[in-house]
Amino acid sequence: MLCSGQLMVILDGTIVNVALPAIQTDLGFSASTLAWVVNAYLVPFGGLLLLAGRFGDLIGRKRVFVTGLIVFTAASLLCGVATTPAMLLVARFVQGAGGAVTSAVTLGMVATLFPQPRERAKAIGVYSFVQSAGGSLGLLAGGVLTQTISWHWVFFVNVPIGIAAAALAGRILREDNGAGLGKEGKGMDVVGALLVTSALMLGVYTIVETTGYDWISAHTLGLGATALVLLFAFCLRQAKAANPLLRLGIFRSRNVSGALGVQALLVAGMFSFQFLCVLYLQKVLGFDEIRTGLGIFPVSVAIGALSLGLSPRLIARFGPRAVLLPGLVLIAAGLAALGRIPVGGSYVVDVLPVLMPLGIGFGLAMPSLATLAMSSATSEDSGTASGMFNTMQQVGSAFGLAVLSTLAAAHTETLLRNGADATSALTDGYQLAFRWGSGLVVAAAILAAVVLKRPTTTQDLPSTPELVDEGTDR
């Protein structure tokens, strides 16, 4: 039930990308404003995850999850019937807020609903499959819907799913009242909430706007510095607040802190695949939307085979760290291989063989990271921990997309000015971005090897979240 709602939100992150050209033609978006069809969703999504997770801890995670589904579904309907750019952008902003509210508490509910280590490993495997493969599935679904019906249906498809999910969630999910807003020491830290939400929204906005401003421009540096100041003020507030929004003691766990850092680097590097490989298939190999979705689909199959089957057993037997490291190595190797794709390449020869190590690596890495990130969460703050995990994923993906797409575009423009043909220049730009993406994943592997504690297996972990001491290295 939880993952069906999460899948709907994850699909929306990529299903819209395929429909952007049709949306631009139909609604009259300019080239500069079209990117905000995506950005208007990303900014509230990345900015509200932590706050929504804390609300789940205080007023009940089930209540927050269902509320998020309702908001997301209603906003999807508004997106589908939009007739002007302004109407679509406002609806996308609301949709991003609803997606954040839904996603923020999902992993926390998984962790508390399955307290036994082996069962939790299996449940996190399903969750990780949805997180990892949902983007690839969105590309395929977006291509089919846009080409066979219209772009409106990339939004309308969420409506019946969201209605059914919200109705069934009320019957299937266990009730939880949360710590309560009015209890002494357990209420909402309003100042902290304002600080962290402002910092995250401003940070995500600054990153996505680098497509129009240089990284060293006054706009980027000024807003980025402001976001960091707000984040620092939030940390100071949490250290002194009687009812902190985020329990800073959780970062004393090397596995939790390390997992969050590894995750940010990993998703930043993987965005070179999720975004630029699609462009290579379409602009260099000439694939249409449906063939592009089918071309990426083997990654989803590999992720599913690992996340749903082998990974939970390996994590239970050897621990998440031991499973994570080879997964990161496979991903780095796959991205490095994509860094050598030729101009006149063949999908079967040059692309398909590389997709397998990427899918296998992601299928090993994501369940391991989710397990590590939730290892110090208690029943009272599992929603906050879940929101933090998803926040790092959103910030990492936004940063990766901005940096790697900028590198690819700048290199391509340089080659075009020097007389290279368009296809060769595009391919060289993609190659550079893939190599940088591989470097980010290598950095993630080094961080994991140095920071993460070795002997953590799910047999070693406490059987219930309440037994975890915030100060332990587990």
Automatic annotation (TrEMBL):
<feature type="transmembrane region" description="Helical">
    <location>
        <begin position="64"/>
        <end position="87"/>
    </location>
</feature>
<dbReference type="InterPro" id="IPR011701">
    <property type="entry name" value="MFS"/>
</dbReference>
<feature type="transmembrane region" description="Helical">
    <location>
        <begin position="256"/>
        <end position="281"/>
    </location>
</feature>
<dbReference type="InterPro" id="IPR004638">
    <property type="entry name" value="EmrB-like"/>
</dbReference>
<feature type="transmembrane region" description="Helical">
    <location>
        <begin position="432"/>
        <end position="452"/>
    </location>
</feature>
<feature type="transmembrane region" description="Helical">
    <location>
        <begin position="93"/>
        <end position="114"/>
    </location>
</feature>
<feature type="transmembrane region" description="Helical">
    <location>
        <begin position="354"/>
        <end position="374"/>
    </location>
</feature>
<dbReference type="Pfam" id="PF07690">
    <property type="entry name" value="MFS_1"/>
</dbReference>
<feature type="transmembrane region" description="Helical">
    <location>
        <begin position="126"/>
        <end position="145"/>
    </location>
</feature>
<keyword id="KW-0812">Transmembrane</keyword>
<feature type="transmembrane region" description="Helical">
    <location>
        <begin position="293"/>
        <end position="310"/>
    </location>
</feature>
<keyword id="KW-0472">Membrane</keyword>
<dbReference type="InterPro" id="IPR036259">
    <property type="entry name" value="MFS_trans_sf"/>
</dbReference>
<feature type="domain" description="Major facilitator superfamily (MFS) profile">
    <location>
        <begin position="1"/>
        <end position="456"/>
    </location>
</feature>
<feature type="transmembrane region" description="Helical">
    <location>
        <begin position="190"/>
        <end position="208"/>
    </location>
</feature>
<feature type="transmembrane region" description="Helical">
    <location>
        <begin position="151"/>
        <end position="169"/>
    </location>
</feature>
<protein>
    <submittedName>
        <fullName>MFS transporter</fullName>
    </submittedName>
</protein>
<feature type="transmembrane region" description="Helical">
    <location>
        <begin position="395"/>
        <end position="412"/>
    </location>
</feature>
<keyword id="KW-0813">Transport</keyword>
<feature type="transmembrane region" description="Helical">
    <location>
        <begin position="322"/>
        <end position="342"/>
    </location>
</feature>
<dbReference type="InterPro" id="IPR020846">
    <property type="entry name" value="MFS_dom"/>
</dbReference>
<keyword id="KW-1003">Cell membrane</keyword>
<feature type="transmembrane region" description="Helical">
    <location>
        <begin position="214"/>
        <end position="236"/>
    </location>
</feature>
<feature type="transmembrane region" description="Helical">
    <location>
        <begin position="34"/>
        <end position="52"/>
    </location>
</feature>
<keyword id="KW-1133">Transmembrane helix</keyword>
